[in-house]
């Protein structure tokens, strides 16, 4: 039976692919009139200097560099050998190719250049007034586009995994929407992705090569369900779709252009020339008046690109949320009562729920569903084959019948409303006197720039919960009495990742910090531990770390270690508070007990007020008040 | 399940070498799954496994030139999402199951819910074991007439 079905499937695949395989290999020729028209078009294009038109510049993904226009892309996008750095040569060559009978070109593209470069043809045809008879019929492309039937496009943001700060960066790609799939079938729409064509077997070289742009980035297309499966199920990342209000003509132009981009690649830089950057560049092709990519001078953080589209284009009117398996699991878990949670332990371990719990069928069903989701996540995460476990749980659940329903879509705050990733802090503070060391009280003003990403106490939707990701910070101070400027602190990174221990998972929390303080003294700290959640206010978490620290101060080196308690709480959505107590046993020195506290009040999306205090080794206390402006850098 | 899909993939692949990677993409998701690689990949936004690599607009599974053929939509969808569908059929609801119902011609909310109930009660028939292949999944679904539930019969 299976074999028959398989063979049938195979046969039809074979037949259909054969049909689609017939390129324009057969001979063709243009009329004498068309050949004459070509000369007119070439003259007209030259007279208009059409290669300077913003639309042409966008179509070639040219960027204005010091040496002139150059595209990051190489490959079949350019017909002319040096087309990637000469918009003019490429444009003239394109017109030549459109009316050329060269078999060589047609063989290279597997179709005539007119059918390969549909977006170029459409634009050039309109600008130069191509005669209707000069257009070639592109059946294969027409059929392909008809079956895709794209009428609108969305930008899709895969949020960060809430327990994995490594994914803070997020990811964006495009969704091509076929209105015929609107009723419950949008999963069979298509996703278009720009990603590095990397070899995962290269381990750590992968990271290095990625930073150096040694991989080629290419556009690829996959069914949407297949594209998001990786994010929703495997990585536990929620999905946000933002439909863009382009008209159908513009969307059609986008599809034409994406076809031109096939097999063309640009060096993929993970932090700059990445997925999100080239998605922006592609949107600019559809509507050359859009100015999106220029908003970025350094890191291109995916959620920031969504914000730029929102703020600069007005194309985003709506958003659609798809929750990840992990979010789904956490919701079902939260919904369980105490007895059900006990039964969950048994369900996960023994794949059954004993009668002693006396659960109603509905309560049982909820436990089985939670256990199924948990086991599925575990299988994805560990790579273990737990198919049998999930199957047993599913089988037991199915026998209980239709007694549960989809949980309502939980309305989390959308990531586009989160604070921007760079920030400027302006503040004033006091260093108290230290009688012991004979240091008088000092007042100071401070100015700090944070390149990315998020402070522990800031509202954290869209970021990893109760965690901090600070990358690249410069903190300057001006001491009033001393009339002295000082480079107070340079922060390379300061990451705190708290991940609570739950009933089923013993998650690890960790922190790492590397800074240069008071003009060129190193200060590095790191530690690991465990965190626990308490049901107080919006959220409350206690973390217990063991930390080690090395720093240099007053011409002495210190090596220290000890326990730390970190308390983080959010009494309301707009207030975040943290206190940490650290006991440093110091090598060959007296121990030091550090207390640090900070409160953050979020005035509106991109404005915060902060008050913080910390005691120093020399018994001074440093207290300062700051105003924060978050922005896109 | 994975190994079966890979087998199927190879099987189809050898047949349709000319232009098609075969209907077996479900088995190609994640190959290297170490923690370190996961962290690196998510940090740097690379995509893992061969999922997207090399499959450009031109070639894909039960598809021609990157587009899934209409009569292969169900097979393709099940192959990619079998694990999720197994869980959703068991609980009798979910986005993937709703999509499967819609692909089987269910339209209204009532029809979809009738499909879901029927699928749930046919769980053991559609998925007789943890190792049921996607091809068997689809043919079992057909032979147990789950789709009839939403056509009022």
Protein model, in words:
- The complex is a heterodimer of chains A (633) and B (153).
- In chain A, the strands form 3 sheets. Chain A has a 12-stranded antiparallel barrel with strand order 10-11-12-13-14-15-16-17-18-19-20-21.
- The N terminus of chain A is likely disordered.
- In chain A, a hairpin with a 5-residue loop joins strand 20 and strand 21.
- Chain A is built from 17 helices and 21 strands.
- In chain A, helix 2 packs antiparallel against helix 4, helix 7 packs across helix 11 and helix 15 packs across helix 16.
- With 633 residues, chain A is an alpha+beta fold.
- Chain B is mainly α.
- Chain B is 52% helix and 3% strand.
- Chain B is built from 7 helices and 2 strands; from the N terminus they run ααββααααα.
- Chain B has a two-stranded antiparallel ribbon.
- Chains A and B meet through helix 1, helix 8, strand 5, helix 9 and strand 6 of A and helix 1, helix 2, strand 2, helix 3 and helix 4 of B.
Strands, helices and their partners?
The complex is a heterodimer of chains A (about 625) and B (about 150).
Chain A: H1 2-20, H2 32-48, H3 54-59, E1 62-65, E2 68-71, H4 87-98, H5 103-109, H6 113-116, H7 118-128, H8 139-148, E3 152-158, E4 171-177, E5 190-196, H9 204-211, E6 215-223, H10 224-234, E7 239-244, H11 248-260, E8 266-268, H12 275-286, H13 302-313, E9 320-322, H14 325-335, H15 338-350, H16 361-382, H17 387-398, E10 422-431, E11 442-454, E12 468-479, E13 484-497, E14 509-517, E15 521-534, E16 539-553, E17 556-572, E18 575-586, E19 592-604, E20 607-615, E21 621-631
Antiparallel strand pairs in A: 1-2, 3-4, 3-7, 4-5, 5-6, 6-8, 7-9, 10-11, 10-21, 11-12, 12-13, 13-14, 14-15, 15-16, 16-17, 17-18, 18-19, 19-20, 20-21
Chain B: H1 2-15, H2 35-44, E1 63-64, E2 67-68, H3 73-91, H4 95-103, H5 109-121, H6 123-126, H7 134-143
Antiparallel strand pairs in B: 1-2
């Amino acid at each position: 039976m299976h074999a028959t079905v398989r063979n049938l499937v195979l046969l039809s695949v074979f037949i259909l692919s054969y049909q689609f395989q017939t390129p324009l290999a057969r001979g063709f020729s243009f009329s004498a009139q068309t050949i004459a028209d070509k000369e007119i078009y070439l003259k007209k294009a030259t007279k208009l200097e059409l290669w300077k038109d913003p639309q042409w510049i966008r179509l070639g993904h040219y960027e204005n560099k010091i040496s002139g226009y150059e595209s990051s892309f190489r490959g079949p996008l350019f017909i002319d050998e040096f087309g990637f750095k000469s918009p003019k040569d490429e444009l003239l060559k394109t017109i030549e190719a459109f009316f050329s009978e060269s078999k060589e070109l047609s063989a290279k593209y597997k179709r005539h250049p007119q059918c390969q470069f549909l977006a170029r043809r459409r634009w050039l045809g309109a600008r130069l007034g191509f005669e209707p008879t000069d257009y070639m019929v592109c059946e294969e492309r027409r059929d392909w586009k008809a079956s895709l039937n794209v009428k609108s496009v969305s930008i899709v943001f895969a949020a960060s995994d809430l327990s994995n700060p490594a994914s803070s960066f997020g990811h964006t790609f495009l969704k091509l929407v076929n209105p015929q799939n609107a009723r419950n079938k949008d999963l069979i729409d298509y996703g278009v992705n720009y990603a590095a064509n990397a070899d995962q077997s290269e381990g750590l070289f992968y990271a290095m090569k990625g930073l150096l742009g040694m991989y080629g980035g290419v556009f690829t297309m996959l069914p949407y369900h297949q594209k998001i499966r990786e994010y929703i199920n495997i990585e536990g990342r929620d999905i946000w779709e933002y439909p863009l209000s382009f008209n159908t003509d513009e969307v059609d132009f986008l599809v034409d252009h994406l076809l031109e981009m096939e097999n063309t690649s640009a060096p993929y830089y993970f932090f700059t020339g990445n997925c999100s950057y080239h998605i922006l560049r592609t949107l600019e092709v559809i509507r050359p008046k859009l100015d999106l990519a220029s908003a970025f001078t350094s890191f291109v953080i995916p959620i920031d690109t969504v914000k730029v589209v929102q703020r600069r284009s007005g194309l985003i009117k709506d958003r659609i949320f798809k929750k990840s398996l992990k979010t789904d699991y956490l919701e079902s878990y939260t919904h369980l009562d105490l007895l059900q949670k006990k039964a969950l332990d048994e369900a996960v371990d023994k794949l059954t729920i004993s009668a002693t719990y006396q659960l109603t069928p509905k309560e049982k069903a909820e436990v089985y569903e939670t256990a199924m989701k948990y086991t599925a996540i575990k299988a994805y995460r560990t790579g273990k084959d737990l198919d049998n476990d999930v199957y047993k749980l599913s089988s037991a659940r199915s026998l209980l019948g239709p007694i549960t329903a989809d949980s309502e879509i939980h309305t989390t705050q959308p990531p586009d409303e989160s604070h921007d990733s760079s920030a400027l802090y302006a503040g004033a503070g006091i260093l108290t006197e230290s009688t012991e060391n004979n240091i008088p009280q000092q007042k100071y003003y401070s100015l700090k720039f944070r390149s990315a990403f998020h402070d522990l106490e800031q509202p954290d939707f869209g970021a990893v919960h109760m965690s901090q990701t600070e990358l690249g910070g410069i903190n300057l101070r001006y001491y009033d009495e001393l009339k002295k400027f000082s480079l107070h602190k340079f922060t390379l990174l300061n990451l705190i990742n708290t991940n609570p221990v739950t009933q089923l998972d013993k998650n690890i929390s960790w922190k790492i910090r590397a800074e240069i303080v008071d003009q060129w003294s190193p200060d590095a700290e790191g530690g690991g531990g465990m965190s626990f959640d308490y049901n107080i206010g919006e959220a409350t978490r206690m973390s217990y770390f063991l930390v080690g620290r090395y720093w240099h101060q007053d011409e002495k080196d210190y090596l220290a270690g000890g326990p730390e308690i970190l308390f983080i709480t959010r009494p309301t959505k707009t207030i975040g508070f943290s206190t940490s107590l650290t006991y440093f046993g110091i090598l060959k020195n007296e121990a030091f007990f550090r207390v640090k506290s900070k409160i953050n009040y979020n005035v509106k999306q991109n404005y915060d007020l902060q008050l913080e205090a910390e005691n120093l080794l020399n018994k001074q206390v440093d207290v300062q008040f700051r105003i924060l402006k978050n922005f896109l850098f | 399940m994975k190994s079966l899909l890979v087998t199927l993939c190879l099987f189809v692949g050898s047949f349709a070498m000319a232009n098609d990677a075969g209907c077996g993409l479900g088995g190609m998701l994640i190959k290297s799954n170490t923690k370190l690689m996961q962290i690196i990949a998510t940090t740097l936004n690379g995509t893992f496994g061969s999922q997207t690599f090399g499959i450009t607009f031109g070639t894909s599974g039960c598809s021609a030139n990157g587009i899934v053929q209409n009569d292969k939509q169900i097979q393709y969808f099940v192959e990619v999402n079998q694990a999720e569908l197994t869980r959703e059929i068991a609980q009798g609801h979910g986005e993937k199951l709703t999509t499967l119902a819609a692909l089987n011609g269910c339209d209204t909310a009532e029809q979809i819910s009738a499909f879901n109930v029927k699928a749930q009660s046919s769980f053991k028939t559609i998925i007789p074991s943890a190792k049921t292949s996607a091809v068997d999944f689809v043919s079992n679904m057909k032979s147990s007439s789950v789709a009839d539930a939403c056509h009022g019969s």
